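Possible regression after last week's pipeline update?

I re-ran a chain I had predicted before the update to compare outputs. Posting the input and the new output here so someone can diff against the archived version. Not blocking, just want to make sure nothing changed silently.
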Amino acid sequence: MQEPDALVQQALAQGNLDAAPLDNAERGLMEFVRLVTLHAYKTTDDDVQRLKELGWTDPQLAECVYITALFAFFNRVADAFGLEDPNYFKSPPVPGSSASTPGDDSDPTCRGSRS
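New output (post-update):
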């Protein structure tokens, strides 16, 4: 899943993992991400073992959990500050473009004032 795939992005943006054209290893990892996102306390050694049987290594699984946890953290911070969805899936930033920087007054996702 290194290269962007419009069908995968569309299915995942809609929360429809079943429609995403993923191989077994990727699908297993995404199912694990869902479990960690919704019910991290329910993960078991068997869940991790299934992923290892699909070819994932301990360092890859650790990175998966770290990234999943970071996204949960960032989403909660954004929600707490009332930040709006920048709609990156609908209109991804063009590489090399001069997009506004976070905190820039022209950035519509940064509401509020600075003192």
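Follow-up from reviewer: compared with the archived run. DSSP finds four helices and no strands in the chain. Marking as no regression found.
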